[in-house]
């Protein structure tokens, strides 16, 4: 299955470099094993406490989750809300409006992942 892309303008070395730089920046911020998983769970949950978030993301340690949440907060994807008026103090995490700008990217990645899995299964079946 071959896909062709109709380009509106020819790709120059400068444009290629700009695209690579932009993708590199995006991957730096949301890349890795856990960040997109955290963003997706937060978007689907609304607000969620740390332990519940950890239970929803199988395999992530508390230390890694804490570090990833700090990174996501620094980059504007997550907001940490402390309810100090309660005893014990309750801390919740919510996705920001900026985080929701990734919705189309997440949907596109999900669709591509499903297509890729089908292709791999089909190729594995055909090679038998």
Walk me through the structure.
With 128 residues, the protein is mainly alpha-helical. The protein has one domain: Arc Repressor Mutant, subunit A (Orthogonal Bundle), CATH 1.10.10.10. The chain has 5 helices and 3 strands, in the order ααβααββα. It has a 3-stranded antiparallel sheet. The chain starts with 12 loop residues before the first helix and ends with a helix.
CATH fold-type name = Arc Repressor Mutant, subunit A
Mean pLDDT: 90
Judged by helices, strands and strand pairing, the structural class is: mainly alpha
Helical fraction equals 55-70%
Number of domains: 1
User: What is the alpha-carbon Rg in Å?
Assistant: 19 Å
Strand order of the largest sheet: 1-3-2
Low-confidence stretches: none
Give the count of helical stretches. Answer: 5
CATH superfamily: Winged helix-like DNA-binding domain superfamily/Winged helix DNA-binding domain
CATH class: Mainly Alpha
Instruction: State the major sheet.
Output: 3 strands, antiparallel
Determine the strand fraction and express it as a percent band.
5-15%
Instruction: Tell me the overall shape.
Output: extended
Order of helices and strands: HHEHHEEH
CATH architecture annotation: Orthogonal Bundle
Tell how many strands the DSSP assignment holds.
3
Report how far apart the termini are.
19 Å
